[in-house]
Structures are given as structure tokens and as C-alpha cells.
Amino acid sequence: MTTVAAYAAPAAKAPLERTTVERRAVGEHDVLIEIKFAGICHSDIHQAREGWGEAIFPMVPGHEIAGVVTEVGPGVTKFTVGDRVGVGCMVDSCRECENCKAGLEQYCTQGNVGTYNALDKNGEVTYGGYSTHIVVDEAFTVRIPEGLALDEAAPLLCAGITTYSPLKHWNAGPGKKVAILGMGGLGHMGVKIAHALGAEVTVLSQSLRKKDDGLKMGADHYYATSDPKTFEELRGSFDLILSTVSAPLDLDVFLSLLKTDGAFVNVGAPEEPVALNLFSVIAGRKTLAGSGIGGIQETQEMLDFCAEHGFGAEIELISASEINEAYERVLNSDVRYRFVIDTATI
To answer: What is the pLDDT of residue 270?
Structure first.
């Protein structure tokens, strides 16, 4: 066991504070990672404030981890000391169910082991990336390509894969009209990825204040959802709408924007239930769906794709002492587009 510095929420809704946590000894197939950067995801806030239900405290959030391998277990074959690596939202799964064997560890039927706010197979609490070091099984560690800066790569481990996976699954590409709903941490990655996949991309955002950014990142069109004319003009337009919004929406209104056989896919997860008139999906044979992160192989594919196309996340680098302020700014949509903690400041 090794004691490392970290920032943790001592209780639900309590400000995060500097502390220490224990990391397990490096096992047969483990890598010890010196964390260089950790992204702040809205999920961190939901969990630290128990918005998604009861949580485990003290909690060290952070599942957008980029760093360097400093030690490897004797059985490790994927990585060597000095490799640039990432860790996303999960650090283990059963590895034996149908989904795990199909490379869909994120949908493990036994439940995957979250990078934080979870119990591992030994019943130990997992602690996330707001920390100086982490020990992770090599099977749940991915390689960060040389073409990506570590700080811009960190958010790809959640925001990148959470948008890449559904865009690929629902065949975003040439000839497809894709709308990205919400222009935040996930949304801006959705725009970049959908554009790089070759789709015609529209941003649907509350206002037009980020329009220039959206167009610069690859959007072809940009509309304000606060303008009722948007819904008249765009009725029946899209093959796919990817919703990155974590607030309740009027689903019936947004479903009206889909073509026949179109899909509305949620990756934003509101804390409250949402209402739906089923005629909104019956008329037009539409699909209302959800999507989580990707599996390990797909996460590696996404990182390679981003490197190949020359982009990472748009980030604002902060020190650890600014985490609580950053949480408030995320809730106020005051970030362009992802806060990343420089873990050297922990």
C-alpha cells in the first residue's frame, strides 16, 4: 500500500479538500500511473452531491485520467515504464459475461467497477483521478497516442468516448444529418467527432453565444433552442440527435426534429425522471435511446481517431485549489469547455 495526496469530498455536498488515500501495491497485472492531469466531469458533481443516489464518502472523484506509467507488475505485457496512458470511467468488470467478451465491458451484466465511488472485487473503495497516483489493471488502461497532449487528452477518457461510442453505433457519417444538443464538455467533443466522421453537424444550444466556437469546431449549422422558430424550421430534419444535456428536456418537442427512423440518444443524465408522450416515437418509428461510455477497445480506437484527426478537448487548466470554484462554474455553464486539474498542484 502507498499513501498518496488527493482531493476528496468528505461528505455529500461538502467542499472538496486536500487529503491522502491509500493505493494498493502493484499486483501481477497492474500499472502504477503518475497522474499528470484529471478532467472535471459533470458526473463528478452529480456523485459528490449525491444527485444520482447514495454515494461512498470520502470520495475522490475523477475518471478522466492522463498520466505516465512509473511501475509495472511482473505479468504486464501492454505497457512499460514511461508510457503515456489514460484511465476512464471504469477500472474492472467481470470479464466473463457476454458483454465483456464482446468488448462491451461498460455494460458488464455484473456491473463494471467504477474508477471512483465503487467497490472493487476485494470490497475496497475505489478512488479516482483527483490524486497524484493510481494503480490500475493493465486491461483497463489505454495508451495515449503521441499526437495528443496529455492535458487535452484527459477529457477524452469520458467526454470523448461518451460521444464517440453512440456516434459510431448510430452510424454518424457522410450523408447523415446529426444534431448535437448542448455545447458543453460533452457537446463540444460531439461536434468535433461527428464532423471528423463526415456527418453534417448542427448544434442545438440554448443560445447563440457559443456559435463561433461551434462553427470553428466543425458544426455546419447552429440554432438556439430558446427560439421557438428553431423547432418549426428543423422539424423532421435529423437522422440522429445526441443529447448531452443533464437537465430534464421536453422530449416530445425534440423528437419532432427527427426524420422517420431517426434516433434521439441520451448521454446526458438528468437527476430527475422525464415525461414522454409515446405518440412522439410511434409516429415516424423513432427511437429514444441512451448510451454510456465505450469499452476498452473502443476507447483506444477513439483516442487513435482523435490523434489522427489532430484534436483533443478544449480545456481550461486549473490548480487543485480551484476545484470547488470549478464545480460552481460547471453548474453555471461557465467553462469552455472542460476543466482539467494539473495534478502537480495537489
So the answer is: 85
State the Cα–Cα distance between residues 230 and 214, nearest whole angstrom.
Answer: 17
Say if residue 269's pLDDT is above 90. Answer: no
Closest CA to 277 of 265, 288, 269: 288
Q: What is the pLDDT of residues 114-128, one digit of tens each?
A: 999 999 999 999 999
The pLDDT of 244-249, averaged and rounded, is: 91
Cα–Cα distance for residue pair 58/47, rounded to 1 Å: 12
Task: Report the 10 Å Cβ neighbour count for 278.
Answer: 9
Dist CA 343 CA 37 (whole Å): 5
d(CA 71, CA 92): 19
pLDDT band at 246 (very low <50, low <70, confident <90, very high): confident
Interval 285-308 mean pLDDT: 98
CB neighbour class for 23 (10 Å; exposed up to 12, middle 13-18, buried from 19): buried
What is the length of the chain? 346
Burial of 157-178, coded b for 16+ CB within 10 Å and e otherwise, reads bbbbbbbbbbbbebebeeebbb
List, as one string, the DSSP characters of 13-70.
TPPPEEEEEEEPPP-TTEEEEEEEEEE--HHHHHHHTTTTS---SSB-----EEEEEE
In whole angstroms, give the CA distance from residue 240 to residue 242. Answer: 6
Which DSSP string do the residues of 302-332 spell out, in sequence order?
HHHHHHHHT----EEEE-GGGHHHHHHHHHT
Strand partners, 265: 242, 289
CA–CA gap between residue 307 and residue 325 (Å, rounded): 31
Establish how many alpha carbons lie within 13 A of residue 29's alpha carbon, considering only the half-sphere containing its beta carbon. Answer: 8
Burial class of 9 by CB neighbour count within 10 A (0 to 12, 13 to 18, 19+): buried
Answer whether 242's CB lies under 8 Å from 233's CB: no
Give residue 345's identity as a one-letter amino acid code: T
pLDDT for the residue numbered 131:
98
**Amino acid in position 180:** I
CB 247 within 8 A of CB 333: no
Question: Is 182 in contact with 245 (CB distance < 8 Å)?
Answer: yes
